Predict the structure.
Amino acid sequence: MGAPEAVIFDVDGTLLNWDASIHSALVAVQAEYEVLASAELVRAFPLAVTDYAFVIRGGFVADRRHWMLFVDPLPPWRRVLPGMDDGTVTAIAHRFRSLLRPVRYDDVLPALAALRSEHRLAVLSNNPRVETVVEQLGIRHFFEAVVAAPEGYRKPDPRAFLETCDAIGAKPGDCAYVGDSLLADVAGAQGAGLNAVFLDRYSDGHPLPAGVSRITALEDLLRLFAPGPR
């Protein structure tokens, strides 16, 4: 790929470890509500989140929209608590949402610290709370711009990517976009003329379009962007 001028990151599933965040909030809300004491909930709730927030295309996970738990946390809770009165389910769901705390992946800080000496860094996310999330992750200082895609043209709409490039004064062809979603990140970045990098943290095995690079951890970016043969 060569060294891009700027590297733009997705957040959810790329910098933010949703599995860890959900587990922590789930354990905390269980401790507050006696009706949630069943150990089965720890297995059932993530499956309900998968059905609610994941987009499947051709048998592959094309997008993990965990950020929807902030927008409306009720659907997965209704699924795992059938028959419970709606007022209680609503109270539990809202309490769960209040207990969600962003947790960053272990590779985030080392990768951002290494990349910022050679590249301009930014964030583009469909998460409407992305500015708060990045602050809570303790990484806001790494980025020149943090952009929440407007509701009218969220990723993969090319306008969201072009708006981010404009925010940092960089041409799309001089930017790499790193994300974990084939639908929102890879397709969107390519459609806007950015260099797409697919972060395959789950070893999903997606076949990738021509020109897309695959990494399994953020430190792989240092090798990918290094000059000369790789």
Summary: The mean pLDDT is 93. Residues 18-99 form one domain.
